[in-house]
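About this split. The held-out portion is used to measure sequence recovery: a designer receives only the structure tokens and must propose an amino acid at every position. Recovery is the fraction of positions where the proposal matches the reference. Here is one held-out target exactly as it appears in the evaluation file.
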């Protein structure tokens, strides 16, 4: 799913233009830049997609998540509920704020179960972070309902699902804040980059200042002469990434359509072989970056995986994924039941993830690319056939 697949002259032109104008900083030099602000154009294109009031481009998806948590005021010792099936960055963002990650269970779509999240709410809970994994949305109606019921902000990790939607609304723009990633492994990439969304002017102000050392950005003042608000960090994006982002978002519909077309073929073939695709909350909004099938047992998933490999196309069993499943993170396990900035952490030992394990150990997945040849697709279909024969016999 790496977006460099679709790089062409457009990206070269966009980058060359920034370099030729020698205007690489997104802020300042207002009188010399001829009114050209590429990072701002990227933000404008992003918020047009989500319909959000504000979009802030930052240096990565991880930076977007940290900025969102800081923007809503997450403090040391606050609890943030999230899912054990996510890229490690979601949890790193919580820990970077010295907040305590609290893990819910996952539902049949493999995303955070809103019902399990509700049971974990305490007076210390200051955010809920559903993650849209492997192309498909979490149950956003349930999460926005939960947020309203308990007055807790919902921070959507949509880092993997730029271009996805839930009931007609773009992912990243549904929660109180949302984050996108454009890292080198994403369907659309700018090298490294992210975008964080919100509709709340106060949250946006806090995020905008935080991501750039507290600068209160204003075109009335040149760089360094503006006001300062609190402490921050440097999560700025450059004009190079901004220019690449404008091109990336213009290619988004075509990229997602190609992925959906490939996934449809693979899913239909899988169903014909008796396989059960992962159910999703909104089929139409799936960005189709992965084809996931759920086997009846963990043993069947192992048999499937071995037969698929034998047939020439290996697949992953999600429970084995070391970067995307909290059970495997030693540093997290070591944080179990410790005093963490005034809050006692939960157990993060492998046993704590038994519910997720039951589902993830039965889930097999194939990653898809935007430009897949019919031979590539056929290879996966052959693997599905071999896997289904081995795993579903009897
Ligand atoms: C679910 C999820 N959250 C956050 C991130 C972090 O994004 P980045 O790599 O841009 O920091 C990723 C990236 O893989 C991700 O998949």
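Reference sequence for scoring:
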């Amino acid at each position: 799913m790496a977006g460099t697949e679709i790089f062409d002259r457009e990206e070269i032109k966009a980058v060359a233009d920034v370099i030729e104008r020698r205007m690489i900083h997104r802020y300042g030099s207002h009188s010399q830049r001829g009114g050209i602000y590429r990072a701002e154009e990227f933000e404008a294109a992003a918020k047009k997609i989500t319909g959000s009031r504000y979009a802030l481009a930052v240096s990565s998806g991880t930076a977007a998540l940290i900025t969102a948590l800081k923007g809503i005021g997450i403090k040391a010792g606050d609890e943030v509920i999230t899912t054990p099936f996510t890229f490690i960055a979601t949890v790193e963002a919580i820990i970077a704020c010295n907040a305590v990650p609290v893990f819910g269970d996952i539902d049949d779509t493999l995303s955070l179960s809103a019902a399990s999240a509700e049971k974990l709410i305490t007076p210390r809970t200051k955010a809920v972070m559903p993650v849209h994994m492997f192309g498909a949305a979490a149950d956003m109606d349930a999460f926005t309902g939960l947020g309203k019921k308990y007055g807790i902000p919902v921070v959507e990790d949509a880092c993997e699902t730029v271009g996805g939607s839930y009931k007609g609304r773009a992912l990243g723009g549904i929660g109180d804040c949302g984050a996108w990633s454009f890292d080198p492994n994403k369907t659309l990439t700018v090298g490294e980059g992210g975008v964080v969304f919100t509709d709340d002017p106060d949250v946006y102000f806090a995020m905008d200042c935080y991501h750039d050392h507290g600068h209160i950005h204003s075109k009335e003042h040149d760089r360094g002469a503006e006001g300062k608000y609190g402490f921050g960090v440097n999560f700025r994006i450059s004009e190079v990434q901004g220019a690449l982002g404008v091109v990336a978002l213009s290619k988004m519909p075509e990229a997602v359509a190609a992925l959906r077309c490939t996934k449809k073929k693979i899913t239909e073939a899988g169903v014909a072989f008796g396989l059960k695709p992962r159910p999703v909350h909104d089929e139409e909004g799936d960005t189709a970056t992965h084809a996931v099938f759920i086997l009846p047992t963990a043993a069947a998933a192992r048999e499937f995986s071995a037969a698929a490999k034998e047939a020439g196309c290996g697949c992953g069993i999600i429970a084995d994924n070391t970067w995307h499943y909290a059970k495997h993170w030693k540093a997290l396990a070591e944080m179990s039941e410790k005093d963490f900035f005034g809050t006692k952490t939960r157990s993060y030992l492998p046993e704590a993830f038994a519910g997720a394990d039951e589902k993830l150990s039965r889930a097999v997945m194939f990653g898809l690319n935007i430009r897949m040849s019919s031979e590539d697709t056929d290879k996966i279909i052959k693997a599905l056939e071999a896997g289904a024969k081995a795993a579903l016999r009897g």
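Annotator remark: The mean pLDDT is 97.
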